[in-house]
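Hey, I'm writing a tutorial for new members on how sequence and structure tokens pair up, and I'd like a real worked example in the thread rather than a made-up one. If someone can provide the structure for the chain below, I'll link this post from the tutorial.
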Amino acid sequence: MSRKKHKVLLCLAVAVALAAMASCSRRPVYSHYEAIGQEGWHRTDTLRFTCPIRQAGQYRLRLGLRASTLYPFTQLTLIARHQTHKSRGCHADTLTLDITDHEGNINGEGVSIHQYEVPLTTVNAARCDTLRIDVFHGMTRQLLPGICDVGITVESPS
């Protein structure tokens, strides 16, 4: 086989492999952020996210957060409850985000607004189902300044 044909076949094989890997990766079927008012996130303010499910399978949930340097603590405790319409079972997860490290350095990405993303859980959902996720903070302080946005991403089955 000539060297030129070998290179073409090699490039074709690499392209097919990359396409196969991309098609097997999880992709977002839902991604939405809710803005928090400038006065802060009140403890009784529950954020609700509703995601229609078209295909049965196991979905991966991720939680996103955007916070400014006005946030006064090194950690943030969040509670996320999720349920599907058909199963009606409600599950809750408690997350503790490290906003800063032990030396006070910001862990998130960004300059004045810092982005954090953490895995939440996986959920089994039926075809033509609805997934509902409620998120609220579990801090002792009633009003949290510096939290700008909270979001949910739902990734499809592989």
